[in-house]
Amino acid sequence: MTVIRFNDALRQAAHALQGLNLPEQPKPRLLRDVYGRLRYALDCAAADYPADALAAMQAAQSTLGAYATSGEVLTRDSFSFPDRVFSDPDWHLTRIDLGADEDGVHRGEALLQVLDRQVTGQDWLRPVQSAAEQHRAHRIVFFGLKGGVGRSTALCMTAWGLARKGKRVLLIDLDLESPGLSALILPRDRLAEFGVVDWLVEDGVGQGDSVLPRMVAASPLGESTVNAIRVASATGQGDSAYLAKLARAYADVPSEHGPQRLGQRLQRLVQSLEAQEQPDVVLIDSRAGLHDLAAVAITSLADTALLFATDGAQSWDGYRQLFSHWQQRPEIARRVRERLNIVRALAPKSNREAGVQRFQQRAYELFSETLYDEVPAGIEPLHDDSADAIFHPADTDDAAPHFPILIDWDERFQEFDPKLRPEDGGASPAQIEAAFGALLKFTEARVEEGVA
């Protein structure tokens, strides 16, 4: 007996439908539970669907081994509130590779609506509307697959550069499990009374609004700029119960419309901070890695998501895993890809030109193989807003998501304290410009243009 593994179950379930003589409507869907088990679902009453077709689908479902269930094919009769199930926003049209037949011939792809019930990671598939539609401050998220690539230092320098240009900047530290932004940009005695983790805990008992006025502090980094730099840290001043709060911070909270998940709660927090602080730009330090906090930051909060990478296998393999996850849901890929921009962090100065070209080519290959549209032979890609536009920028297009923003490696910033003035050992404006100039120029343009 062939053992079905997780990687094969979805493919098998989609392929099994290919040979069945099913009605044109309603189209079969797939519901995958938290263990990966699959069931076919039909948005109709069982009595309105041919009995022989239902039986054929149930037989196909039984071939999934451990990833099948003993239940019948799901119909509207299976649920007390079927509209809640079949109108769930987490149904996504999913591209499923059908693999190869016994002769090695590729079977092609299937497109099915899939509802993926996951314990974590659901927010990678929940992009929201743009800043232009909401008329608010532009949000820039700083994300990396791992620490140690200078992400937080780059965020601090971006805040300094934008405030120097007269922008009112709000920084939010969402790296809750490794909080460090406040240590870079705020002396310990300048921390606000409460942090983001306090709001999440207090919001769980209906008291989130009461801590908002006491969770933002002014950074001394803004004392040498035209406008202020305000910081909402992960933790508050003198917090001795941080781990106990963190253990409760990710919980859903009840509301009149059902449980509010982490993503919805963080959206409320950011919107409330924006209403309170009235910033021109919001810079968000994301949790590193493929974590739920990063999912919320990139897909739900960001207008621009800066993806920090080095030219190593860990960066390329990690981003390919993430991009492939989006690639399988075409409508999600289309909504996410244009907010992304890759950052070549810590670019070495030796053989710089060759290294930059190699990085750029690898970034282009990654995006073109996953998130960019396929270009049919003889067709020129389009870049307008028409429904048939093909999004596939050229490898040399410096406005494309794959075109790297360069941050040069500079030992001055390896153990850098941005709070220090140049006369006290801090970096000068010229030194900051030399290392971070490309990033400062990019972010300033995004804020000015309101690109979302």
Structural notes for this entry:
This protein is of the alpha/beta class. The chain folds into two domains: 6-117; 124-449, Rossmann fold (3-Layer(aba) Sandwich). It is built from 15 helices and twelve strands. It has helices spanning 6-18, 51-61, 82-86, 131-134, 151-164, 181-185, 196-203, 208-211, 242-249, 262-277, 292-301, 313-327, 330-336, 352-370, 429-449, and strands at 29-32, 38-41, 91-97, 109-116, 138-144, 169-173, 217-218, 229-232, 281-285, 304-309, 340-347, 405-408. The strands form two sheets. An eight-stranded mixed sheet has the order 7-8-6-9-5-10-11-12, sandwiched between helices. Strand 1 and strand 2 form a beta hairpin. The model has no long low-confidence stretch (mean pLDDT 90).
CATH homolog superfamily of the largest domain: P-loop containing nucleotide triphosphate hydrolases
Low-confidence stretches: none
Radius of gyration: 24 Å
* CATH architectural group of the largest domain: 3-Layer(aba) Sandwich
The tally of helices reads: 15
Tell me the CATH topology of the largest domain: Rossmann fold
The secondary structure category is alpha/beta
Roughly how many Å apart are the termini? 52 Å
Helix content: 25-40%
Give the overall pLDDT as a whole number: 90
**Share of β-strand residues:** 5-15%
Count up the domains. Answer: 2
Q: What is the 3D form?
A: globular
Strand order of the largest sheet: 7-8-6-9-5-10-11-12
Instruction: Please give the number of β-strands.
Output: 12
Please summarize the sheet with the most strands. Answer: 8 strands, mixed
Quick one: CATH class of the largest domain?
Answer: Alpha Beta
Succession of helices and strands: HEEHHEEHEHEHHHEEHHEHEHHEHEH
